[in-house]
Each structure stands twice: as structure tokens, then as C-alpha cells.
Design a protein that fits this description.
Length: 679
Amino acid sequence: MALVAHHKHLSLELLIDEADQGSEQQDGRPASSSSASRTLSRSRRPRSSADVVLAMEEGQRRAEAGLRVDGRPASVRLTSEGLVIEWAAGRRRGPWPSSAPSSSCETVPFAEMLAVQRGQPPPAALAPSRLPSCLLSCLPCLRGRTPRVEVLTFRRSPACRCEWTPRTLVLEPGSEGEAEDWAAAIGAGIEAAAAGRPKSLLVLLNPNAGARQGRRVWQRVAPLFKAAGIRLTVRETKRPAHAHVMAAGLTAEQLRTIDGIVCVGGDGIFHETFNGLLEARAAAAASTESGAVELAALLSSLRLAHIPAGSTDAVACTLHGSRSPFTAAVHVCLGDSCLLDVLRVDTASATKFASCIAAYGFLADVTSAAESYRFLGPMRYDLVGTVKLLASRAYPARVRYIEGEVGRALRKHGSTVCGAGCSVCRAASFMHSRRMSEAQLAQANGSSSSAPGSPRAQASPAASAAPSGMAAAAAAAAAASGSAGLPAAPSSASLGSSLVRSEPPSPAAHTLTTAGSLGPASPHFVLPAADAAERQGGEEWRELEGEFNAIMCIVMPCRSDKTKKGMVRYGHLCDGRLKLVLVSKCSPLQYLRFLLHMSRHGCAPGALKYVTVLDAVAVQVEPLGAAGQVAGGSNGQQQPCGKLSCWNLDGELLPGPDQSIAAEVHPGLLRVFSRGVEQ
Ligand SMILES: Nc1ncnc2c1ncn2[C@@H]1O[C@H](COP(=O)(O)OP(=O)(O)OP(=O)(O)O)[C@@H](O)[C@H]1O
């Protein structure tokens, strides 16, 4: 690709990735070696203010110039990757005699630049006429005439690579003409690296999040989106569950104009938004109306972001390793993308989704009680948590889980920490996409391998609502992504077959039958053929019964300020598994020890005798306390009482008196603006 910046003073031609992509001149003809050398010799004309040369290196021409960067003399090279800046040798800061001449080199890739702009004139207070001449000679940029090119990018914290802070790289070329050339060339480089960056976003803002700081946080990061040229539509939530309604109500027309949704607030608004989207996606996949296929496809291609402004912000912390709104915003502007597993939780009366955690017992009790003390801000969790810890309640329950084929296959990777480019997530995505493609091809050929009466067969009316051509296309897409080894978003067809119930659930929907079979009353457990068959076989189900202080189904690592390494040390964003953490009945002191251990190291198998950590793809929990003891509290929230607690899904309490659940991981159901935590 040829990036050409013309100016009356300078013709700067950059050929990027000439070897890979085949070079073309501006008029579209291939660049011959003679034209290349003509450009070279033309550009080697002596420069008055800066020494600009084009050097031929390994078949690529690069621009190189001596200029000032961030106020210091430097040699800057423009390569196909970005800017390589070499600062001239200077004195290191530090006490004599250790200070010695040093030079440093840095690469700023185009892929990490948000925007480039011509510098603004200095503020009136710094007008040249008001400054002493000695200062002007030391700092030429204060003269007001020095041309400036500002590159908006970020800096990684030396202590923690995933913590990013804003940075404006200031180049001071010798003349206006050169400044324009540099700005144009850098702008073209950013443009070339901008594939996947969003152009238009819908922002859902919860002004009530955290210590009511949603608006303030948004005002801090909004300029970044504007500088990156992203169009924004901002909508504030007016009441609880408003984000759910707004997300579920998005029309195809609206979806066509946006590349993603940015949730500003806590985990709650993120949870509500993706629940709304998945609900709409399932409905569209099941619908036979014209336009439903497009709507489902638009919904499944949408990316979600979380700008943290809440009390816990586990989603942002887990996705980026940082709770900084700036870091989250940069990930969005750069168009980072990865898939996220989602836990589908079915009760007798509702289907909900969780991206972080479904917790029964201690965590749910704390969330439920803390809601009345929201005016205290995030501190409410510490206060209520202490009270609940001292009370230390255990709840009787029957827990069943299945490790599944994926879980077993990945068992040997048990001690891999999830990060950017995680090998476990990649391997799991590959396995899932391959399995999905096999199942969908079978479905497209009308030869489903499910036995009659199996959960898969029960969902077939919804699945068959999807046109067969679409199923085939989805299968082909899944097969293609599988062969490439890349994670693929589940297609609307697959989502339709796995999310939509063909009939309203009965209250007895989750009555457990004999160990090893799901029984006819569980129409919700539907996975591609391999798992369904495996579950029908029954031998994979395991059952535990006892009294538990906490039962937690943890889908992602769940990092937060209190659990820097994650609630589970070896959790993953997209491995198709959850970690089932069971804390057996214990004393307040033991529970405190568990909390401290989780906070410092994250739960891992074998660390504490009374804590069990298991891999699972599906879980059923049946509380064994007296039925009907979960009552509505004064604030409308569930209040656990007697021998029953309630479920907390990503910080939101599960409504309804029946807290028996059937939960299942849906691999890579959500696409988010993230690259995983940089280690
Ligand atoms: N305008 C609003 N007024 C009152 N409540 C709202 C409004 N908008 C959203 N909510 C509710 O506020 C609750 C909390 O929101 P959110 O999770 O974003 O913040 P948080 O609880 O402080 O953070 P975290 O979940 O990270 O602890 C959600 O249940 C949501 O439904």
C-alpha cells in the first residue's frame, strides 16, 4: 500500500509492507524500482531545517528526520509499524557521579495511536510577547511559531503493563510544510492500522452508579472518543433495568448505525445491557418474521464495552486488568475485540445470563442487604460483609455438575493464567467452533444425532424456525473459523437452537430426577450434539449434597480491587468452562481465612480443606431449605431468610421465590472490546 504525502517543500512517499502486499503507485500502477529510486533521490534534497532522508532497508523505504520530540532533540523514523524515536544522548537525571550520557529508543506503533492533529497555538498566558527571550531560546515551542504535530496515544505504567495513562507525543518539525507531511503520513499510518476500530457507538450511562459518578467519569473519557473520530449517541438510564429495556428494544435500523455499546457505570449496567441484547437475539433467532435473521446477525456482531464508574467494576478489571476508565476507553477506541463466555441461568420462571459470577449464600446475602445502604457508596459492601461474616450462615443444597469434554481436555492446562492472547482460550474456542460446525452441519443435513426426547430434540421446534439455508451458512462460517483456529461468534442459528424455549417452563422444570439423567423437565440444557449425547449417557454427572456457606459459579477470573489476581486464579475469559467453588459449612474465622486467601491468591483447587474448586460446563443447584422462605424486602429486593439464600448474578439478585437453578456455560457468546490482560 502506498501512503503518499505531498507538499510543496517535500514529497514523502512511504511504501508500507511492500514485500507482502505488492506496491502500487498513486495512480494504481505497480511501483517499479526506477520510480522508487526517483522518489529516493528527489527526497534526498538537502533540507534546511531538518535532516530528512529516505533510507532503503530490506525493500522498504522509511522516512527519517532529526527533530524535537516532547521538547528533546531526537531522530525519528517512520516505518510501516509506526514511529521509531531515538532521543539524542543526554545526561541521565541523578546524583553525580552516576549520571552518564545516555540515549534511549522507543517505538510508538500506529496500532496504539488514537489520532494525530496539528498542534494548537499556545495559550494567551504563554504568548511570546509575554515571555523572556532567554526562555524562548531554550524552549522554541513557546515561541508560538514552532509547528507542532500532536499524536494522541497512551503510556503503559512501568509497574503494571495493563494500566494505561494518556500521552500526547509532540513532534516539532522545522517548518509548517514538514509538520503537514508528518501529520499526513502518521494519519495515513493510523488509518491503515484502523481495521476493526469503531466509528459509531451507543453509550448507555448510569448516573446512579458507584458514588453517583457515572456522568463525571464519562465527561473525562468522552473527549478521547471524539478525538478518535467516533460518533457517539449518549443515553442515560432513568431507573433500574432501563438499560435492559433500551438494549432489548434496539431496532435493526438503529443497530446498522452502531458498531458497539459502551456501558458507563458498574457491573450492573453491563449485566443489564447484555441480558437485554441476548434476550433480543434469542427472540430474533426464533422469529420467522422478515428481517429477524438480519436483526439476529446485527445483534450478534455487536461489541460491548464497560467503562468503570461503579462500586466494584469486576467486568472492566477482568477484561483489562485495570479499573481505569481511560484504559477501558482506549481499548474501545483501538477496536480491541475478544469473545466472552456467558453463563445462562434458568429458574422455573426466568432465564438470565451472567458474565462474571452466579453466587448463592454469602455474596448474595451481602448484595441483598447492602442495597439498602447504597448512600454509603462502595463502603457498604465492607460494612454489610463484616456483619454477614460474623453471622456466618450455611445453607443446605444439592449440587450437580458436569465437567464436560472441553473441561476434561483442558484439565492439563489447569495452572495457566488468562491474559492477552491466552493459549487456553484459543484452544477452547477452536474445540467449540469445530464441535459447533459438526453439530450444525448435521442439523443442516437434517440428520441430528440427538435421540428423540433428548434436550436437544426438545429444542428442535425453535431451532427449526431458523431457515435451513441460514443453518448451513452458519455451519460453514463456524467450520471456516474452526479451521482457522480463531474464535468465532456463535451464529444466530446456533443461538436460536440453544437459547429459545419452545414452551413456557413449568414450576417443576428443574426437579432433579435420578442422578445421571436430566429428565424431561429440563428443556434448557442444550449444547451441540457431542455434549448433549454425553449428558444423556449420564455417567458424567456428579452430585454433592451438604451445607454450604457459599456456592459460586465463576465464569471469568473476576478481578476487582479486592481480588487483584481474580476470584479464581486460573479462570479464563473464553474457555467454555466455569469454576464451581463450594465453601462447606465453616466458622466465621475459617470463612474470613477463605476470603483473605481468595483476595490474595484467588481460589485454586486444594488450597483450603473446606473449599472445593471444580471445573464444570453445567451446574444444577437445588437449595434444600424450606420452600417459600425468600421474601420481598422493603426495597423490593429479595431477602434471604430461614434456610434459604438467593442467587446473585453479577451483583444483581435473581427474582422469584424458587431459587433452584440450572446453569450452563455458553462459550464465546458475547463479543467485547478487550484484548485480555497484558501481563
Ligand atoms: N437512573 C437510575 N436510577 C436508579 N438506579 C439506576 C439507574 N440506572 C440504573 N440503575 C440501577 O443501579 C444499579 C447499580 O448500577 P451499577 O451496577 O451500574 O453500579 P454499582 O452497583 O454501583 O456498581 P457495581 O455493580 O460495579 O458494584 C443497577 O441495578 C441499575 O439497575
